[in-house]
Amino acid sequence: MSVPTDSSSLAPYRAASEHLCRVRSEMARVIVGQQELVHRLLVALVARGHILLEGLPGLAKTASVSALARATDCRFSRIQFTPDLLPGDITGTLIYDPVQGTYSTRQGPIFANLVLADEINRAPSKVQSALLEAMQERQVTIGDKTWPLPEPFLVLATQNPIEQEGTYPLPEAQMDRFMLKVVVGYPSAEEELVILDRMASTRPQFTLDSVVKPDEISAYQALVNTVHVDPLVRDYIVRLVVATREAAAGTGVAPELKRLVRIGASPRATINLTLAARACALIEGRNHATPDDVKRIAPDVLRHRILLTYEAEAEEITTESIVGTLLSKVKVP
C-alpha cells in the first residue's frame, strides 16, 4: 500500500504537528528541559492513552501536567492519594437532601480532562481499582446512573520509586492498563541553573496561553487513526512484543535472557505500541509510522510490562536493558 505524499494530503498532519509544537513551546516557558517527558505527554494525549510517571519528588511532574492543561485549555484535576482515601472521593457520590427527600449527584475530581493521580501507590487497592476502571471504561457509575467522562481524558499517575513504606504497589494487571511508563530523571547542571533563575522567587509568575482547544485535541485523536502503518512495520511491532515472551521461554532471538525475564508483554503492548508510534508520526507531521518511531517509544511501552526474575532484580538489571537487548536483536524492516 502506497502512502500519499502530496502536500494536500499531508496538510492536516502538518497542521496538527504545528499546533502540538506550539503546545510544547508554551510548556517550555514553565518546564525547563524534560523534552522526553513533554513529548510522551503529547503522545499519550493524542493516542488516548494514560501515563505512569516514576521519579523522585521535585522533578516537575505535577508542573508538567498543569502546564499541559493550561496550554490546551483543558480542565485539570489533582488527586493526592492517601491511605484513608475512598473510591467515592475520586468518582463522586450521592448527596441526600432531607428537605426535598431526594438524592443529587456530586461528581468527583475524576471528571476532568487531565487528572493527576499523585502517588497512586499510597492508596489501597479498592481506590486504585476505582480509578483504573474509570480509565478503562471512560465512564463512572454513581448510584443507578452512568456518567461519561469528558473528552479528551488523560490520567497521569505518579509514584516514588524509592519510598515504599506504607504503600500499596500496583498489581501487574493494573500496570498493564497504562499506555506508557515514563521515568523522569534529574535535569542537567545547565538546566538546573535556568530553573534557579526562573523559580528562585517567593511568587514565581507564569502565564501560559491556550494554544489549542479540547475539541482540536479530539480531532487529532481521530487523525491518529489515519496514520498509515506499513505491514512490515506491523510485523516488526508484533515480532518485538513476541520476543519479550520468547525471552521468558528461553527461545527466539535472545534465549540468554531466560534467567532474567519471568513474563513477557501482553497483546495490549502490541496495540499501545502501534498507537504510540502513530502518535509519534503525527507529532512530527507525517502520515505514516516508521520503525524509528517504534524504537523510540518502545522502552516506555514495554518497561512496565516485562516482569523480571528474582535473579535479575538481585543483579540490579533493569527492564530498560532487556528492551535495549531485544531492540538490538529483532530485525528491523
Strand arrangement, largest sheet? 2-5-8-1-9
Number of discrete domains: 2
Number of strands: 11
Helix content: 40-55%
What is the H level of CATH, i.e. the homologous superfamily of the largest domain? P-loop containing nucleotide triphosphate hydrolases
How many individual helices? 13
Profile the largest sheet: 5 strands, parallel
Element-level helix/strand string? HHEHEHEEEHEEEHEHHHEHHEHH
The low-confidence runs, each spanning 5 or more residues with pLDDT under 50, are none
Beta-strand residue percentage: 5-15%
Instruction: Give the termini distance in whole angstroms.
Output: 15 Å
Architecture per CATH nomenclature, i.e. the level-2 architecture of the largest domain: 3-Layer(aba) Sandwich
What is the 3D form?
globular
Rg on CA atoms, Å: 21 Å
Structural class: alpha/beta
- CATH topology name of the largest domain, in short, is Rossmann fold
Mean pLDDT: 88
CATH class type of the largest domain: Alpha Beta
